[in-house]
Amino acid sequence: MGDLTFTERMLVEYAGERAVDGPLTLGQINTLEWLGDDTRAGLYRMMEWAVTVPDGTTLDDVAETLAALVERHESLRTSCVTGDSARQRVSGSGRVAVDVYETKADAGSPVDPEEVTDLIAALQARPVDEMGNPMLRAAVAVHDGAIRLVLIACNHLAVDCESLAVVVRQFDHMIRHPAERRAGPRTHQPVDQAAVEHSPRGRRRAEASLRYWGQHMSRMPQSVYAMPRPAGGAERDVRHAYAVPGSASGEGAPLGCWLDSPALRLALPHVAARTQTTLPMVLSAAFCAVLAWRTGNTDLVFASLANNRIGRDLHDYVGTLAQDTLLAVDADTTSFDQLIRRAGSGTLRAAMHGLYDVKLLQNLQAEIGDRRGVLFQRDCACNINLFESEVRPAGPPEEAQAALDRTTLRWHVPPYFRVLLLLRVIDSDGEPLLGLTTGHADLVPAAEIESLLLGIDRLLAEAATGDVDLRRMTEITGLTPVVRGPEWQRVDGCWIELPEVQRLVDDAVRVPARVFAAPDDHGRTVLTAYVTAGGPVRTPREAHEACMSMLTGRYTAMAPGRYVICAGPPEDPDDPAAWRRRPVLAEGDGRKEQR
Question: Which residues form the Condensation domain (predicted)?
Answer without folding.
Answer: 49-378
